[in-house]
Amino acid sequence: MKTYICGHRNPDTDSIMSAYALADLRRRTGMADVEAICAGRLPDKSKWVFDHFGVKPVRAKRDVYVRVRHLMDASVPMIDADMSLVDALRKLEASGESSLPVRDASGKFIGMLSPAKLLNLFLSRGDLTIPVGRAPLHHCAQVLCESDPVHDIRLAAVKNSHNHFPVVDEDGKLLGTVLKRAFAEEPPFRMILVDHNETDQGIPGLDEVPVVEVVDHHRIAFAATREPIRYTADVVGSTCTLVARMFRAAGERPTRETAGILIAGIVSDTLLFQSPTTTDADRSLCTWLEKLCGESAESIMAGLSSVASPLSSLTPDQAIASDAKTYNESGRKFMLAQIEETNLALFHQRQGDLTAAIDRAIAANALDFFALMVTDPVRGNSELLFRGLESVRRALPYRRGPDGTLMMPGVLSRKKQLLPEVIAALT
Ligand SMILES: [Mn+2]
């Protein structure tokens, strides 16, 4: 069964690199069909890392919804309309099914071949050598489209009296059959989460797919599981540090490329060991990786920093969404976004546009408030653009700057520094 490894929505470098490296490790330790994916668009910084180390980037995937095409049963044959009825009935008999889908010369679905529908023809001793296309077919079957998400149609399908559902593509071309029992089966893939564990922060569709493993360095808000799962969590600066440690524990040595990819995750999440989230484990594992990679953490960080800043290369809506996380706390729904920007002058210039984008995000997501943290990793400061619930803004311990943003000297971490203050302000 296929296993996807995926970081959080609006993924950052740590999320994507840890997914890539963990897929490498899981493949080496015997997991056959595993693929690292990226929840949404691959950010430019991540693209730079993959290009720099000459490896194929992880695939961007919008969601992991189970779709009709995943449930299709390839062993159920299809009948061509020009086949003689007697041959078609033999094929039906051999298949062991109660009915089979029929397609015309252009491949389009035209109906189901079902003995019940042919009873009159048998009784009148009709000619069984006629083509199937001229025989009475069954037309009231529920036709499914391959891209339909299963959760939208499961209820109707289970209630339907038929056991066979023909599947067509957008043009009506017959692709195959879904059997009713497939709706009761487990999803055809499973998930490993890296760099997050809250379903709200995960790739859309995550709540329908079983999670078999989590590797993470955030607060734990994972739902109770039905079966034991592998869960690796520690208070370190980067999920890539945990993956590097897992390579070591398994006695596996990352390749030059994977070592470099892990370093990129570590330096970006710890802001080259400046963030207060940094631990000794981040530093010592990074030293080990530098030896395997042959490139220093500093040079990889310099490469990452050379990639265009979000404020100069993205629209305001894209910039605030590029690393935004949704939280539900004390009955409030809010988003905390973070962008790294060494040029805070640009932030002040674009403040009006960003404010408008934030107000749109608040309306679109029915949020109580939205805070955008703009972090300057070079000087080690952040500023906060806050919109929404005024009582929360006033309860935050940050001084208001001349143009209304909140000044956060020395604050670099959304998780460790901003989130606890926001939670405290809510209670
Ligand atoms: Mn991380």
What's the quick description here?
Helices cover 36% and strands 21% of the residues.
Keyword list:
inorganic pyrophosphatase (n-terminal core), alpha/beta, binds manganese (II) ion, 3 domains, elongated, Diaminopimelate Epimerase, Chain A, domain 1, 16 helices, six-stranded mixed sheet, single chain, CBS-domain, six-stranded parallel sheet, 427 residues, 18 strands
How is this structure best described in words?
- By secondary structure, this protein is an alpha/beta fold.
- The protein folds into 3 domains: 182 residues, inorganic pyrophosphatase (n-terminal core) (Alpha-Beta Complex), CATH 3.90.1640; 115 residues, CBS-domain (Roll), CATH 3.10.580.10; 117 residues, Diaminopimelate Epimerase, Chain A, domain 1 (Roll).
- The protein is built from 16 helices and 18 strands.
- The protein has a 6-stranded parallel sheet with strand order 3-2-1-10-11-12. The protein has a 6-stranded mixed sheet with strand order 13-14-15-16-18-17. A 3-stranded mixed sheet has the order 4-5-6.
- A hairpin with a 5-residue loop joins strand 8 and strand 9.
- Helix 1 packs parallel to helix 7, helix 8 packs antiparallel against helix 9 and helix 8 crosses helix 10.
- The chain is elongated and about 90 Å long.
- The model has no long low-confidence stretch (mean pLDDT 93).
- The chain binds manganese (II) ion.
- Manganese (II) ion (MN) binds next to loops.
